[in-house]
């Protein structure tokens, strides 16, 4: 699925065509998955398709595995969709893919936009060694502690550290980062990737501070820390 709204063009035509032909989908959110598939103008009515939501945590109870197994037993292909990213990569779906391998079912990854990779590509930081940490602590003192830990990892291993946060907390993350990180540590922000308000900025903390107050949009963001 696209990362940003109105960005269907970022999904390659061949991937769109494959998705159009499927009738069973395992998804992160059924509502947005239906909207996406409907935008592809599939040959069959949406009401005749199956959209089964994946569990939020791998291993949690759900009907996703049963739906998958029922479909492949009768020879149907199954699509795996996640929100604004890639299934199994910082998104749900790895468990289903592992099940497919155990069942001898062919797994075909389709090219599509990944916010993590796009942010890394545009950051100028180390793209050979990197780690993704999901969401950090929501409270300021704990967030500061987490940022110092990631800064240490970046310096010790020359490894770019990536994390995400909900849009309405992006400004707070920036403020705490500039208060906490060392002046020469590189801090990056990538917002609304592939969207109309896309912006990517990656600078040493001292240069962020020299720019004065910076207000981040309330848009999905990937944050990066490098040496």
Structure description:
The chain is of the alpha/beta class and about 230 residues long. The protein folds into 2 domains: about 100 residues, 3-Layer(aba) Sandwich (Cobalt-precorrin-4 Transmethylase, domain 1), CATH 3.40.1010.10; about 110 residues, Tetrapyrrole methylase, C-terminal domain (Methyltransferase, Cobalt-precorrin-4 Transmethylase, Domain 2, 2-Layer Sandwich), CATH 3.30.950.10. About 35% of the residues lie in helices and about 20% in strands. The protein has 8 helices and 8 strands. Helix 6 packs across helix 7. The longest helix is centred in the middle third of the chain and has 18 residues. The chain is elongated and about 60 Å long.
Give average pLDDT, whole number.
93
CATH topological fold name of the largest domain: Methyltransferase, Cobalt-precorrin-4 Transmethylase, Domain 2
Distance between the termini: 32 Å
Question: What can be said about the biggest beta sheet?
Answer: 5 strands, mixed
Q: What is the tally of helical segments?
A: 8
The top level CATH class name of the largest domain: Alpha Beta
């Amino acid at each position: 699925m696209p990362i940003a709204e109105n960005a269907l063009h970022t999904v390659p035509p061949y991937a769109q065509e494959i998705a159009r032909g499927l009738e069973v989908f395992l998804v992160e959110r059924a509502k947005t998955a239906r909207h996406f598939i409907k935008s592809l103008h599939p040959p069959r009515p949406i009401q005749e398709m199956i959209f089964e939501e994946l569990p939020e945590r791998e291993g949690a109870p759900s009907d996703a595995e049963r739906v998958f197994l029922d479909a492949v037993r009768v020879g149907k292909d199954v699509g795996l969709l996640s929100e604004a990213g890639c299934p199994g990569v910082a998104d749900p779906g790895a468990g289903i893919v592992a099940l497919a391998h155990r069942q001898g079912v062919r797994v075909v990854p389709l090219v599509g936009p990944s916010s993590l990779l796009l942010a890394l590509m545009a950051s100028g930081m180390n793209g050979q060694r990197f780690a993704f940490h999901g969401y950090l602590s929501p409270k300021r003192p704990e967030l500061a502690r987490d940022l110092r830990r990631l800064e240490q990892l970046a310096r010790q291993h020359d490894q770019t550290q990536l994390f995400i946060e909900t849009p309405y907390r992006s400004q707070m993350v920036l403020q705490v980062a500039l208060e906490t990180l060392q002046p020469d540590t590189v801090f990056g922000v990538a917002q609304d990737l592939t969207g109309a308000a896309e912006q990517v900025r990656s600078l040493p903390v001292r240069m962020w501070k020299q720019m004065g107050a910076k207000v981040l949009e309330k848009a999905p963001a990937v944050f990066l820390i490098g040496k």
